[in-house]
Amino acid sequence: MDNSENLHLLGKIATGDRQAFEQLYTATSSQLYAVSLKILGRKDRAEDTLQEAFIRIWHNAGEYTPGRGTVLTWMISIVRYRAFDLIRYHKVRGEEELEGEEFSAADELQDLSPEQKKELDFCLKELETHQQQAIHLAFFRGLTHQEVTHHTETPLGTTKSLIRRGMQSLKRCLGL
Length: 176
Description:
Layout: H1 3-14, H2 18-40, H3 43-60, H4 71-92, H5 105-108, H6 114-126, H7 129-140, H8 145-152, H9 156-174
Helix pairs in contact: 1-2, 2-3, 2-4, 3-4, 6-9, 7-9, 8-9
């Protein structure tokens, strides 16, 4: 389903059209679930996050702004924020630690072309391991600098420097 169809359905959802909501759910739920599962790593939490995200989509359909990205991108951002909120919730309660993981930007950034994803992955791999980890946790797992500091067991100033220097290196590598 393309963006114009999603936009049409979202407009109907904003007026309370349940059938349009069902159509949008059917068309997008598998992609949104994949995003949620990638972030959370657990099926049960990914399913809960997806359900919460669709509730938000239902209630906030009228707030979508077409000039700020596609409908799918807007929906993905809702799923990502819900997933990050869930991670923070469980981390604050001390229920789980974040796992170290190999990072690929290609899995996370839906709006980039395949060439852009390859270039970003290459540039990320050029960073020091600590910079990669800090940027991954902050930008792709949604952690605050304080949470990154706790996870990596580094001082706050060091965390901020790692992220800042890593982002500068990425900009240079990407020619921005």
